[in-house]
Amino acid sequence: MVHHRSRSHGRERDRDRVKDDKRSSKQDPPDEYRKRRRSRSRDYDEEHSRRQRERSNSRAKDEERKDKKRKRDKSEERRARKAEKLRIKEEEEARQVAELSVYSATDNPFHDVNLGQQFRWHKKNEKDRKQGLSLAEAQHKDAIRRQDAKEELERLNRRRAEREAEQRLREEEESRMARMAESAQMSDWIAKDGEFQLEQERSRAAIRIREKRAKAIDFLALNLKYAHPLDEDHNEDDAGLEIDLDEPYNIFDNLSPDQIDELHDDIERYLSLETSEVDIDFWTNMMVVCKDRIDRIKASERMGVEASVAVESEITALLSGKSYDHLATLQKQIQAKLASGEPIDTDYWEGLLKRLLVWKAKAKLKSLHEVVVRNRLEQLRKRQRDEALHAQEELLAGVARSAAQGLKDANYVVPVTTAEADTQEDMEPYDRSMSPPLIDITKLTEDERQIDIVTELDDLRALLKQRRTVAASRFVPKAAQPMVEVEVPEIASGADLASEALYRAEAERELDEEEELFNLEENIANPTSYNWEDKYRPRKPRYFNRVHTGYEWNKYNQTHYDVDNPPPKVVQGYKFNIFYPDLIDKSKAPTYKIVREAGNEDTVLLHFSAGPPYEDIGFRIVNREWEFSHKRGFRSSFDRGCLSLWFNFRRNFYRK
Questions:
Q1: First to last CA, the chain
Q2: Rounded Cα–Cα distance for residues 260 and 291 (Å)
Q3: Rounded to an integer, what distance in angstroms lies between the CA atom of residue 597 and that of residue 607?
Q4: Residue (of 62, 47, 46) closest to 3 by Cα position
Q5: Using alpha carbons only, what angle is made at residue 524 by residues 576 and 328, rounded to the nearest 5 degrees?
Q6: Which of 113-122, 134-143, 199-208, 495-504 has the lowest average pLDDT?
């Protein structure tokens, strides 16, 4: 269009110029005419060159636009998208045109000439006028009717949404119940699988012992089996197995470091499979002793054997020979000393407390081993009595048969050959003096009367059997210690087992680097008398507490101490976990209060109280201001029978 317009304008100018030339040629003289003709030719040339330049510039721009368009059109996807958009746009325009052109006021199937106008309900308006309603009242009535219809529609939508929500909740509940049923079934399968794995481990241990290729864990598993009363089938299966008469923790004395590591892994496997409380307690204590032995081996490698033996001998001389109750009392004293804040050798007392826990585990293992040995000896005595009764019955039956045969053959004379006759002649006649004199049982002592009567052949067989057992065993037991008769502990109640389970779950959590055990209970000065004592037996709740200690780097400590020579640790907080699994009224949570004593500004008594059947319990803590912010570690909750009270002390920062 630009080119055509420029050409038309050029032709018009040429025609005008020719007309002007003709007029000027008629009016002007020849010289003037030639001058004007030359000037016009020059103007024409300049105009022509200018138009050519413009024409060339426009052609260059057109070429550039075409190049850009070709570059854009190189993308097939772009062309496809443009074609799709164009097609959609054309379809929409065609649809709108079709909708507008389908019906008209003169051509429609309803024969309505007012089709393009808004609908008006004339009959209704006439009825409203007859009823005396004005236009405003009729419009107000219509607005109310529309509002009622709108509210009814919203109400129906809400009811439908509620039905859909109820349906969704019902489906979620059904799916949750199905998952719970499946989880219960899976838990049963897992429990049965654990029992099967544990039984297989015990069977493999018994097989290895019979085949004289036993490992250390096999002897421990065999000893633990006799901690429970066994039936006759087990007695018959274990008839050829002998237990170790020495304490189970002494088995580490005959093991190398690699064997101790292997035993540690085996104990972990048994601990993950056991379900009995007695067995779990046994393997837990064995794990404590095993970890202590591994730590001692590493310490001897790091410090040297002589230094390690010197420290161990000093601690052994202090703790050996003490009962479990004495060790528990000593533990409370050490914890009180560490919590007192006095200037003491903290490393020594913490190391002593760690070793004391090991000796407590050994004391528990020793008491359990005494029960094992007693049960095993009782089983052997019962077996010997059964065998003696069986032999006595067979002997009496043989004597009876011999007596009956003798009566039948009383008149029968056995023919004697010449050789037998010579033997009988050479045989010395029997005399009573040839046999040892009979012992009068009334002259024996009480201990000698309890000794079992053993024939010479049985004694020789037992001796050879013991020799073969010792020669083929990997672990040679030491001399048996004198057996101490202990009372069989009574069976724990369900509440005690629940408390033990909660206590064990809390104790299995590892202590932080700056946490220590704090199980030092304080005696309440004025014990409370409970009005439910005649109905329930009062008992102390179990607990597992921790104390958080650390260094306080104030200005004085920064001046006088450093990282290599730190200041004494101070108490920075506590974590109390009191277990009430058997509360009668579970709707009332246990409470706590702080009791301040006159004349004692350093410590206060933290008093815990709950309902029946638990007594009140108290602990003495440092008297400092608490930090009640949850971000600072404060926690006060009662969940699943465990009262948790965790708090840290407020730290004050001063600025100049």
A1: 87
A2: 9
A3: 12
A4: 62
A5: 65
A6: 495-504
Q: Which residues of 40-68 are buried (b: 16+ CB within 10 A; e: fewer)?
A: eeeeeeeeeeeeeeeeeeeeeeeeeeeee
What is the distance, to the nearest Å, from the Cα of residue 538 to the centroid of all Cα atoms in its chain?
34
**Residue type present at position 528:** T
Residue pointed to by tokens 């004050």: 652
Six token digits for residue 488: 């069989």
Please tell me the distance from the alpha carbon of residue 216 to that of residue 282, in angstroms, as a whole number: 15
H/E stretch holding 309 reads helix 305-319
The CA–CA distances, whole Å, from 396 to 107, 134, 389, 390, 549 equal: 131, 130, 11, 10, 78
Distance CA 283, CA 285 (A): 5
pTM for the predicted model, two decimal places: 0.35
411-423 confidence digits (pLDDT tens): 444 444 444 445 4
Q: Which residue has the tokens 């002589």?
A: 306
Rounded-to-integer distance, Cα 258 and Cα 261, Å: 5
Burial of residue 356 (number of CB atoms within 10 Å: 0-12, 13-18, 19+): buried
SS3 per residue for 524-558: CCCCCCCCCCCCCCCECCEECCEEEEECCCCHHHH
Helix (H, G, I), strand (E, B) or coil at 577: strand
| Bridge partners, residue 522, by sequence | 618
379, burial (CB in 10 Å: exposed 0-12, middle 13-18, buried 19+): middle
Which residues on adjacent β-strands are paired with residue 607?
593, 618
Each residue of 509-553: pLDDT tens digit?
A: 767 767 787 777 877 766 666 666 666 778 888 888 888 888 888
Distance separating alpha carbons of residues 83 and 72, to the nearest angstrom: 14
- Are the C-beta atoms of residues 277 and 500 closer than 8 Å to each other? yes
Structure tokens given for 429: 């006649």
Pull the structure tokens for residue 217.
């864990």
Residue in the block written with tokens 């429970």: 228
617 three-state secondary structure: strand
In order, the DSSP letters of 108-164 are -TT--TTTTSPP--HHHHHHHHHTT--HHHHHHHHHHHHHHHHHHHHHHHHHHHHHH
The token duo for 506 is 């809390």
Contact indicator for 623, 604 with CB cutoff of 8 Å = yes
- What are the structure tokens assigned to 246, written together? 């020495």
Amino acid identity for residue 567 in this structure: P
How is residue 428 written in tokens? 């010395």
List, in sequence order, every residue forming a beta bridge with 604; answer none if it has no partner: 621
Q: What is the DSSP string of 211-262?
A: TT---HHHHHHHHHHTTS---HHHHHHTTT-----S-GGGGGGG--HHHHHH
Give the whole-angstrom CA distance, residue 201 versus residue 204: 5
Residue 571: which H helix or E strand, with range? strand 570-579
pLDDT tier, 162 (very low <50, low <70, confident <90, very high otherwise): very high
Average pLDDT taken over every residue of the chain? 76
Could you count the other beta carbons within 10 Å of the beta carbon of residue 371?
Answer: 17
Strands 617-622 and 626-627: unpaired
Could you tell me the two tokens for 591?
Answer: 């409470």
Instruction: Give the residue carrying structure tokens 């001063």.
Output: 654
Sequence letter at residue 19: K
Residue 246 has pLDDT above 80, yes or no: no
Say how far apart CA 560 and CA 86 lie, in whole Å.
86
- Rounded-to-5 percentages of helix, strand, coil across the chain: 60, 10, 30
CA 150 to chain centre: 55
Query: Are 220 and 248 contacting, i.e. CB atoms less than 8 angstroms apart?
Result: yes
Compute and round to an integer the Cα radius of gyration of the chain.
54
Burial group, residue 402, by CB count within 10 angstroms (0-12, 13-18, 19+): exposed
